[in-house]
Amino acid sequence: MSAILNFERSPLPFEKMKALLPTAKKLYQEASPFPHIVFDDFFDTEVTEKVLSEFPGKNDIDWIDYYDGNQVKLANENEENIGAFTRYVLYSLNSSTFLKFLEELVEIPDLLSDSSFRGGGLHNISRGGKLGIHVDFNKHQKYDLDRRLNLLLYLNKDWEEEFGGHIEFWDREMKQCVKKVLPIFNRMVIFTTTATSFHGHPDPLNCPPDRSRISLALYYYTVGQEERGTTHSTLFRIRPGEKEESPNKIKIKKFFHRFSSKMKK
Q: Which of 59, 109, 168, 202 has its CA 20 to 30 A from that of 161?
């Protein structure tokens, strides 16, 4: 067994991180419609293969089930439901070493990680699921910290274009999608979160019934930020030409969704 898988060496690719920074810093700041970057094969393959092997199925743990007119997804932020090696990777991405890398990459000083994985951890979206275009909650209520940065690590092997599930980045006026990123295996996406960093995967997932769109999610904070504004939860936005579902229709769909989920367990 390798030193990494045996917990004898960090899963972080230190030399690669150093090599990436000079070019990545410029790409990050110049990216449109808001600062972001996509790293392919950031981790050694053995790291992401091991995380994938530990990833729980939709009936393996007690997931948080998000279901309404804007989102259909499962999430888990409870460490007890996360495999030992996956926790090792998450801790590494929350470490001071990785925070220093992020600070230089995104040019935001004094970043703080979140040991509670609030809203993050494991994400799992099955066929037909989606996450509407939105901006994220901007305040960690428990720690009174301001959210600044998102990191997503996708774990979808042999993921085809027609499966969908692209994360979309929209312009600040919500007039058009500027960039779409396919959630393929060992692809890391990092982006700055502000009041206008509109993103999501708004079209229902079209993968085979036995597949799902899975990822790790981590969020980073500071004490105060330039764009504080009013504290808010996740704010969803409607795309041009898209109709918002009525509250009654959402309630009916949610009822049948929960009933169906209980029957399958």
A: 59
